[in-house]
What we know:
Layout: H1 9-13, H2 17-29, E1 43-55, E2 58-67, E3 81-90, E4 101-104, E5 114-117, H3 122-133, E6 136-138, E7 141-145, E8 157-159, E9 166-171, E10 175-180, E11 182-183, H4 189-199, E12 210-214, E13 220-227, E14 233-234, H5 235-245, H6 250-271, E15 273-276, H7 279-296, H8 304-312, E16 322-324, E17 335-338, E18 341-344, H9 355-358, H10 365-379, H11 387-405, H12 413-434, H13 440-451
Antiparallel strand pairs: 1-2, 2-3, 3-5, 3-11, 4-5, 6-7, 7-12, 8-9, 9-10, 10-13, 12-13, 14-17, 15-16, 17-18
Amino acid sequence: MPxxxxxxxxxxxxxHRPMASLAGLLREWLxxxxxxxxxxxPVTDLSVLSSTELFPGCLHLLVHTGQTGVLTxxxxxxxxxxxxLLLGVREEPEPGLERAFIGQVRExxxxxxxxxxxxxxxxxxxLLLERLRRPGGAGPLCFEADPDTHVPGxxxxxxxxxxxxxxxxxxxxxxxxKVFRRIQPGVNPDLEVPGALAAQGCTRVPxxxxxxxxxxxxxxxxxxxxxxxxxxxxxxxxxxxxxxTGDDFTTQAHELxxxxxxxxxxxxxxxxxxxxxxxxxxxxxxTARLEAAAHCVPALRSFVPxxxxxxxxxxxxxxxxxxQRIHGDLHLGQVLRAGREWFVIDxxxxxxxxxxxxxxxxxxxxxxxxxxxxxxYAARQRRPWxxxxxxxxxxxxxxxxxxxxxxxPRTKHALLRAHETDRAxxxxxxxxxxxxxxxxxxxxxxxxxxxxxx
Length: 454
């Protein structure tokens, strides 16, 4: 069996030492990862921000990457990103970890060793859970836990394949650890929000039981451990199943609307509300995102004048409900159904946006628009397209929301149209960059929204 190695202290005395060995391998490996933001573009800059031996044979790195041609959602050239890496170091490649293999080091202090993504390795995943079960520190890393929750040891780990912007480990079908890949300074909403909702007694969100963070190069959340719902199905899977069998989905959509309102009410109680969203500033921001997306996606350009009218209407329409903390990236893939109950997960928001922006109060209509767009996405996965299925689900979702929230999203016509348009613009840019074959889905909505009187 290949041996794990303990990286000698002198290798970590200078945080740049590991990069002398790993830079070449990581430049090739990073752009191929699903969670890497600048896919298919060469990494032009690579540096270490933090380096820690988490346990023998496992290096924890925070690395800064820079790429040419990468733009922020506002269309500004990106200054680069910080990524969290857990790297296994072995004397030779290990059988069974071929998918995780990064490469054989050819130079520097780690020359001759095999390096791999440690989250794929059972032993490394087990040791990571042990760190979380026993709060403490490792260099700049801090491991913390809810003192009222006991997490048992010896849980078998498995890495989920479905994650895209992060990596998740499930332990014994009892807990799930989300390891954030793209790191920004501050408290990640996926730790902050579920914790605050749990304090309010909200049971629709699994509460954090342990987490880890760093103090270097700045304070930031690195990962969160929560209860896992083993018998739950995500909303996307359930919606596609209903479409495939011809089953009605309006009852589930109605109950999902109620669950979304429950979350919004709990968020307002936990974080406060009361100030209406600044519609003028919101319109300016939406217009800026539209123009930046049109610059990148030529197919969008002819629709820009019509789409601007949706945003312009914000300055004269009903301001709608007060701004508050929201989910920020709500769609069918972010909800789970266990039995007859809906649960909401993944409060991280859109990872491409700055963390400070994701934590500000916004109109709850933004979340509603995200879910309505998700029903349309699901309906277009089968041919012939079934617009009436999406329409019925949208109506049922809004009706369910109104039952709990005390106001009906359908009465906020211009506000809902603007937020749905903004979401569709985001989808166009995402699909053009990452899944070009899916581009016709949001483009169909763009065409409707550009000419729709509401």
